[in-house]
From TrEMBL:
InterPro entries: Cyt_c-like_dom, Cyt_c-like_dom_sf, Cyt_c_oxase-like_su1_dom, Cyt_c_oxase-like_su1_sf, Cyt_C_Oxase_1, Cyt_c_Oxase_su1_BS, Cyt_c_oxidase_cbb3_su1, Cyt_c_oxidase_monohaem-su/FixO. The lineage of its organism: Bacteria, Pseudomonadati, Bacteroidota, Sphingobacteriia, Sphingobacteriales. The keyword Electron transport applies. Its cofactor is heme; Cu(2+); heme b. The chain crosses the membrane at residues 21-42, 62-80, 92-116, 128-148, 160-183, 203-224, 236-253, 273-293, 305-321, 341-365, 377-399, 434-455, 492-512. Heme b 2; high-spin binds at H344. Its main location: membrane. Belongs to the heme-copper respiratory oxidase family. Binds 2 heme groups per subunit, denoted as high- and low-spin. Binds 1 copper ion per subunit, denoted as copper B. Residues 532-664 form the Cytochrome c domain. Signal peptide: none annotated. This is cytochrome-c oxidase. It is an enzyme of class 7 (translocase). It comes from Parapedobacter luteus. It is found in: Cell membrane.
Amino acid sequence: MQLTKFNYDNKIVRDFGIATIVWGIVGMSVGLLVAVQLIWPFMNFELQYTTFGRVRPLHTNAVIFAFVGNAIFMGVYYSLQRLLKARMFSDVLSRIHFWGWQLIILAAAITLPLGITTSHEYAELELPIDIGITIIWVVFGINMFGTIIKRRERHMYVAIWFYIATFVTVAVLHIVNSVQLPISMWKSYYLYAGVQDALVQWWYGHNAVAFFLTTPYLGMMYYFLPKMANRPIYSYKLSILHFWSLIFIYIWAGPHHLLYTSLPGWVQSLGVVFSIMLIAPSWGGMINGLLTLRGAWDKVRTEPTLKFMVVALTAYGMATFEGPMLSLKQVNAIAHFTDWIVAHVHVGALGWNGFMTFAILYWLIPRIYKTELYSTKLASVHFWIGTLGILFYAIPMYWAAVVQGLMWKEFTPEGVLKYPNFLATTLQIIPMHMLRAVGGTLYLAGAILMTYNLAKTMKKGRLLANEPAEAPELTPVMVNERSRHRRLERKPVLFMVVALITILIGGLVQMMPTFMISSNVPTIASVKPYTALELQGRDLYIREGCVNCHSQTIRPFRSETARYGDYSKAGEFVYDHPFLWGSKRTGPDLHRIGKKYPNKWHFDHMLDPTITSPGSIMPPYPWLIEQPLDTTTTKAKLNAMRILGVPYTDADIDAANAHLSQQAETIAADLGDQGVTVRPDREIIALIAYLQRLGTDIKATEQTAVAKTED
């Protein structure tokens, strides 16, 4: 048989590997900055660009899309070429993909600290960057499928199935979640509102974790773990069951992030059912990985790469058991909005994604540089430091979550809240946050140690940019394969279409009724659109990242209604583009904050939170008092909202800034009566207007009803 000679492209693998290391250090460093700000708020250095609200999404984007994203591309470009016995389809597309992705990361690093954000979790980047992501993702897809089409190995190995599912699903998620109406270059409003927006966001958010942080890593696990252990994958049949059940079930589970909210109950129930079912395929993948090490456990003692892999798979098993447990309503009622969610996410991110990335880097870099790892001992030290880092991070967060969940719900024998002041809980868990910061420091130190080790390894060797390889050309199929799945594996386009249909089913079933049947999201007559000033204030609230600490949805629990007020209704959010329910309570819920405190209280709270809340870990926002409100976009914003279905009239839009100024003058005058001198054109006035509006439509209706009864 005649063999064709060709070269693997190791340069693109090296480039993505270096980017993984660099962005990993950056993302983890920003994460440490975020962590210490929850202990010492002055660690924002009194700059508006480094406050928790702005930097926290920078951390998540840097870790998910910069660190993990580059690691995915590193692993895919290395394994895909070898599994298909072919060089990547186009070196030019590979370079465009690499530099385009780095530019997207750089754009995120610039815009997020500036407050240019959509507020959608894991999708905070504004429309121009979203368009860039779409273009680069298509470039990646063309390059990947071009390589699959020109392959010299007819059979598509398990890893490639996961790569294909990752590509098509992330494309669908990104496009659906990014449908926005632009106001200006860097400001857009989501097409969806309120409950619908929440459903789309967490359909996207949950499955971004599934198909960006999970499926590509499972693909890499199926390739790299057998290579590291020098053992075949434990079960081919289990891999088939694992793959198809995982991608079908995962897509349904998003609503478990919205339990006890005003999302329709039937959608919540579907989310719970499929979340519980998700344990089976998830653990199927973990078991397939761990059992691959049968007969190779002696190597785990001496090979750092296998140590990292074993802990990564264990962390994956823990996280994918914990997720379904958190979707049980009884557990969710206590754990949601607490630090348990933070711990859960980081067991996956640090253990599963981080440790597998480290393992692949330690295994891959010496091979493309044709040398030995500089120091196996340093790699083992990194393993133990990193493992301690995970433990010091996760365990205190679980403990903090138990404290939060119990303190928030505790009543005295007389039937009143034992801890009515939210701050009491915050102060109680600061020691746990300190330990979390210690854990983050250890984990970062381990990553820095790895960087040194790999840099010395690169210096010791020499990159084999074009690695020689040979394989026979693809020949026509001569034997009728009995297995249907085997036949499917030989048809990449059909495989992609089947995977696409599989992942679309769950999303369509959950979202279409909510969008097409109006009774699923009932309206409330008393709920009116925001005034021009309130809308501007809402955008400032989004800019400052307040939603990262404060939820805006009150669940129907006695403890929450006693603390915050009446529970939230679906009809209250019909004009909210985007929704701002939040996913974590570092501070109290704000949905009923309107009219609860005078304007001066809000002014003092933003000037220096310790004035109104001694011991608060919220940073001050003096720039809101100093900076003038930009009113040049007011009409454009109202007009865009009208296009999206908010009932603003021509008169509302034409007189938008006049009405804005009038309301601002009223608030400024009230502050003046209370001894505060502030100009009505400052940003603080708009933010106060928005905060004073929250939840008052329902309150006003209830008060009117009571007054009529008394008459």
